[in-house]
Design a protein that fits this description.
Blueprint (H helix, E strand, L loop, with lengths): L5 H13 L12 H13 L3 H8 L8 H33 L5 E4 L1 H7 L12 E4 L2 H13 L2 E2 L7 H7 L2 E6 L6 E5 L14 H5 L2 E3 L7 E4 L1 H16 L6 H13 L6 H10 L3 H14 L7 H10 L2 H12 L4 H11 L2 H12 L3 H8 L4 H6 L1 H27 L1
Parallel strand pairs: 1-7, 2-5
Antiparallel strand pairs: 1-2, 3-4, 4-5, 6-7
C-alpha cells in the first residue's frame, strides 16, 4: 500500500465533498485509510455529510467506518431536532412581546443550504435583536429557565467587549443561545459595527411566522466573512464553514448584490475579512459564482490595519491568552484599562465559582491564586508561540 501524507488525505476528503460518489479518486481504500478520512472529517464537522453521500451505497466503505459516519449523522439529527423545537418556543415567547427576531447562521442554513437538518452540526442558536429589546428579551428567557454564566468581567467591561448575551438552559435540553445586538465586535471596539446597515437589510423568513426574519443574502454573506476572517481567524476554522460559504454562494448567486456587498465591506472596514475569507473558500471549493472584479475591488479598498488584523487572527496560537490579546488590541484606551483590572481582580462570584472558594473573604484572600493562574496561562502561551516559531523556521 502506498503511504499517503496528510495532504493526500485532505485532498481526497475534499474530492469526496465535491465529486459524485460514483467518481472516486484512485487512492487506496483499505480500512486504515478510511480511518484517517474519518478522523479528518470529524475534526472539520463533515462526518454527517460523508454519511449522506454514501447512504445509498454503503458497500463502498468499510462497515465500521460507514457506521461511524452514520452515528455522527444520527447524533447531529437528534441534537438539531431538539434545537429547533426549543427555537420555536423561544421565538414564540419573544415575538408575542412584539420583539423582532433575526435568525443567524446555523439556524437558517441547516434548513436552507442542506438537504437534511442532520447534516449541519450546531453548538448553539444565534439570534439578533435590536439593542433596546435586549434587556426585555434576556429577562423573558431567564423566566423560562435560561441563565447567564458567571464571567470574570465586571458589568462595565461586559458592556465594553460584548456583542451578545450568552444564555444557557440549565435543565434539559441544555440549549445555549447567543442573543446578539452587535455583530463581530463589542461596544468599545475601535471599529464598532454599524448595525443600522444590517437592520436596513433584513428580510422575512418564510415559514417561521410573524416577527421572524434573517439577513438578506448580501448582508449575511458579509457577516459570515467578518465572523470567520475578523473574529475567529481563517487558520483555525473547520472546513465545514468554508464549505457552507461555497454552498451559500451557489444557492444565492442570483440574489447577492455584489456592488452592495463591496460597498458594505468598505463602509464597515471589513474589506480584508471579505477578501481573505472568499479567497480561502475558492482555494478549497473553486467558485464560478464569484465575479472576479469583486476580489479586485475588495483588495483595492483594504487598509493596512484591516489586513494586519485578519492575517494575525489567521496565525494566532489557539489559546485563551492569544484570543484575549487580540480582543484587547481592538479596545479603546479606557476599555483596555478596565480589561486589565477586570482580569486581575474579577468579581467575587467568579472567584468562588472558578477556584472553589466558599466565601467572599476566601475569594478576596485568594486573588494571588488568580494571578498564578494567569501567569501559568501566559507561560504556556509563550511556550506554544516558541514551538510554532521553531516549526515555521524549520
Amino acid at each position: 500500500m502506498i503511504a499517503l501524507s496528510e495532504k493526500d488525505v485532505d485532498r481526497y476528503l475534499i474530492k469526496l465533498l465535491k465529486d459524485p460518489v460514483d467518481y472516486l479518486p484512485d487512492e487506496p481504500g483499505d480500512e486504515e485509510f478510511w480511518e484517517r478520512i474519518a478522523r479528518r472529517a470529524e475534526r472539520h464537522g463533515l462526518s454527517p455529510l460523508i454519511y449522506w453521500k454514501f447512504r445509498q451505497d454503503q458497500t463502498l466503505l468499510p462497515p465500521v467506518i460507514y457506521n461511524q459516519f452514520k452515528q455522527a449523522y444520527l447524533t447531529t439529527l437528534g441534537r438539531n431536532r431538539i434545537f429547533f423545537a426549543e427555537l420555536e418556543r423561544v421565538l414564540g415567547w419573544l415575538t408575542s412581546q412584539g420583539i423582532t427576531v433575526v435568525l443567524l447562521k446555523g439556524a437558517v442554513f441547516a434548513r436552507t443550504l442542506y438537504e437534511d437538518i442532520g447534516l449541519r452540526p450546531m453548538s448553539d442558536l444565534d439570534i439578533l435583536l435590536r439593542k433596546e429589546d435586549i434587556s426585555d428579551a434576556v429577562h423573558l428567557l431567564k423566566q423560562h429557565g435560561y441563565e447567564e454564566p458567571v464571567l470574570h468581567q465586571s458589568d462595565l467591561l461586559k458592556q465594553d467587549v460584548s456583542h451578545d448575551v450568552h444564555l444557557h438552559l440549565a435543565r434539559p435540553p441544555h440549549v445555549d443561545i447567543e442573543v446578539h445586538w452587535l455583530l463581530v465586535g463589542g461596544e468599545k471596539f475601535r471599529h464598532k459595527t454599524d448595525m443600522e446597515w444590517f437592520w436596513q437589510r433584513i428580510v422575512p423568513l418564510t415559514g417561521w411566522g410573524e416577527g421572524v426574519a434573517t439577513l438578506s443574502p448580501t448582508a449575511h454573506l458579509l457577516y459570515l466573512c467578518a465572523h470567520l476572517g475578523y473574529q475567529h481567524g481563517l487558520g483555525l476554522i473547520g472546513w465545514l464553514w468554508l464549505l457552507e460559504l461555497a454552498r451559500f454562494l451557489e444557492t444565492y448567486r442570483q440574489e447577492i448584490d455584489w456592488n452592495d456587498f463591496v460597498e458594505g465591506a468598505n463602509h464597515l472596514t471589513w474589506n480584508a475579512a471579505a477578501y481573505y475569507t472568499l479567497q480561502a473558500v475558492c482555494q478549497l471549493f473553486p467558485q464560478s459564482f464569484l465575479p472576479a472584479q469583486v476580489m479586485s475591488r475588495l483588495r483595492a479598498q483594504m487598509m493596512p490595519q484591516e489586513v494586519s488584523h485578519v492575517l494575525a487572527m489567521s496565525q494566532v496560537v489557539p489559546s485563551r491568552l492569544a484570543f484575549a490579546w487580540k480582543q484587547f488590541e481592538q479596545l479603546d484606551n479606557a476599555a483596555r484599562l478596565r480589561a486589565v483590572i477586570s482580569r486581575l481582580f474579577p468579581s467575587l462570584a467568579f472567584m468562588r465559582q472558578r477556584y472553589g472558594f466558599r466565601s467572599n473573604w476566601q475569594a478576596i484572600l485568594g486573588y494571588p491564586v488568580r494571578w498564578l493562574d494567569l501567569t501559568s496561562v501566559f507561560l504556556k502561551y509563550v511556550k506554544a508561540r516558541f514551538r510554532a516559531g521553531k516549526r515555521t523556521s524549520g
